[in-house]
Predict the 3D structure of the following.
Amino acid sequence: MTDTPSKETRPTAAELEQDRRDALRLKITRRKLGPSGRLGRAFLESKLTPLIIVASLLLGAFAIMVTPSEEEPQINVPMIDVMVGYPGATAEEVEYRVITPLEKLLYEIENVEYIYSTSSPSGGMIIVRFLVGTDPDQAALRVHTKILSATDEMPPGAMMPVVKPRTIDDVPSVAYTLWGEDATGQELRRVADELKVELTRHPRVAQVSVIGGQRRAARVDFDTQKLSAFNVSILQA
C-alpha cells in the first residue's frame, strides 16, 4: 500500500485580501489611543450614553420652549423721508431741478445704502435708507444738516424740505398702484381716496396713506372793481 502525495492548495485572491484586512485591523486595535479615542471608547462602552442623549434632547426642547422669540425682531434700519414741495411745477421740473440735486447731495452722507425718489406735479419725495445698525437719531440729524447746508441752492418757489424719520415698523405691508390710460392725476387721486376709506374700515388696518396724484383745490377770483366800490381790500375779504 502506497501513500499518494497530497496537493497543496494555494489561497485565493479574496482570501489574501481578507488576511490583509485582518492584519491591518489588528494593527489599528493595538495602536495606543489618544484622548479623543479614549473618550469615544468610554462613551461606546458606557451604559449611561443613551441616558445622556435623551437628557440632551429634553434639555434642547425645553430651551426652545422657554427662549423668547419674535416674529419680527427689532432691527435698526433707519429710513428718512424727505418731502419737497414745488408748487406749480410739473413732475419733470420737480425731478430735474429739485429731486436729482438732492439725491446727489444725500449720497454724500456716510452709511447711506440706497436712495429712492418719487416725482409728481408740485412736489416729490426722497427715501434715504441707511445701513443696518446705523443709529436712527444720527441718521436723521445728518440728513437734516445736509439739507440745511444746500437751502440756498434750491430753485425759486421751492418749499423747505420736510425731514421725517421712519423705522422698520413703518414699512407698508401692501402697496397698490392705480393707473389708467385716459384717467388724469386728479381722477386717480379721487379713486385712491375712496379706496383709502374702504381699507381704513378693516379692523386690522392701522394706517393707510395716499401718495401721488393731484389734490383737489379751490380757486377764488376777486373782482377788484367791486372791492374798490365797497372800500374793501383783498386781505379784508
About this structure: The mean pLDDT is 81. Residues 79-171 form a domain with the Alpha-Beta Plaits fold (CATH 3.30.70.1430).
